[in-house]
Amino acid sequence: MRELTYVARRTVEWREAPDPELGSDRAAIVAPVAATSCDVDSAILAGHGFLDPPFALGHECVARVTDVGDDVTSVAPGDLVVVPWSISCGTCDHCRTGLTAHCASVPHMAMYGAPIGGDWGGLFSDLVRVPYADAMLVPLPTGLDPVAMASASDNWSLSWRLVAPHLRARPGARVLVVARGSIGLYVCDIAGALGASDILYVDPDPEHRKLAESFGARTAEAIEPIRHGFDLAVEATGRVDQLALAVNSLAPEGICESAGNHFRPGELPLLDMYLTGVTLRIARDNVRAHIPEALALAASGTVEPARVVSHVLDWEQLPDALPEKHLKPVFVRDTTPPRAAH
Q1: pTM (predicted TM-score)
Q2: Which residue ranges traverse the bilayer (predicted)?
Q3: Domains, the chain
Q4: Which of 37, 186, 46, 214 is nearest to 123 (CA)?
Q5: In the prediction, which pLDDT does 260 show?
């Protein structure tokens, strides 16, 4: 089989790799049919990551199951499934409490798309091994488009987590979104659907702002801190100065969720945060725990994740098109690949 491999700044290529084997009665083999780049992939491709190439890229996809181990009960060959970005067993203490990004059965931060916690391959591959099929794979609800939900592995479901629980606890909250990619736009869509009273989206890209406005957000190219302006701030830029802007715009006891992948150090206004009473979470998402709720929201018809998809491209275009600067390209291929040998 082939796996798409990051080899240098703005350069990826197909490389041959052995076809994955089940190796366990709990495992499955899947074939991605709609895969997309995460916002952090864009940073890696631009040369801003902290990992040296080469490595297999990709950690967001909807896939078709091609083979399963004898103990797998939740999915079967032919099913369309969401493949979470992180590897999790479902049975260790961390997994049972929802901390699936910290599974104790595998090395810390084991994941697809980067050689962290071992080499698990990437989801821009012809075939992928899922070691804990029942724990990890989430069937795609009938009626949901795999292209629209290609990001449910990470960015879409992460965006749900960034705002949905907070809007449940604080109905009508005012939301600030400081962003550069798809996460911020998904957040605008979700926050509007769940009843935010005000959404301000800050992004220098005019096309992104236009899309945010269609979701009901006010927009700005840049702002100065708005003292006590928002109950919830979401920062997804990877820039510490923008994270500082977000926390400096919070109301007393406000919450800031950072999904910015900060590869560089910086300073935060800690005294101001202390005096305001800010809660700040900077966290890689335990996505498996809330993929079902995020998919249920998508299936409700009150949100439109498909509108964030910027391009739908053929699978064979991956080496040439992935390094280009697209907001959210989805790469698709034949949805009925040959069944893997058992």
Answers
A1: 0.94
A2: none
A3: 2-154+297-332 (3.90.180.10), 155-282 (3.40.50.720)
A4: 37
A5: 79
